Amino acid sequence: MYYLNLDKKTNRxxxxxxxxxxxxxxxxxxxxxxxxxxxxxxxxxxGEFVYSPIKTEKPVKESSxxxxxxxxxxxxxxxxxxxxxxxxxxxxxxxxxxVSNLIEQNK
Length: 107
Description:
The chain has 107 residues and is an alpha+beta fold. 41% of the residues lie in helices and 21% in strands. A 3-stranded antiparallel β-sheet has the order 2-1-3, with no helix packed on it.
């Protein structure tokens, strides 16, 4: 005889215990057999085991997170540099026009 420890919200099997000599566990479910495989992949619903594996996402590699942060910083810096260069080019064009006007006035 096995006793199941179930998650109260989801009925997911958390653990199973084999108890002897008439002992029991409070707040547990009694079953004759256990399913094959990983117990955590099962729910216990209406007296039956239901296969329902927990979906897991692939963990993001820490190095790729750092790489993305570095790319983001570089991209931000690049955008800032491009804006500054554009502003300086406009200033140079304005100065060139002013110098040209001064030369024309002094002729």
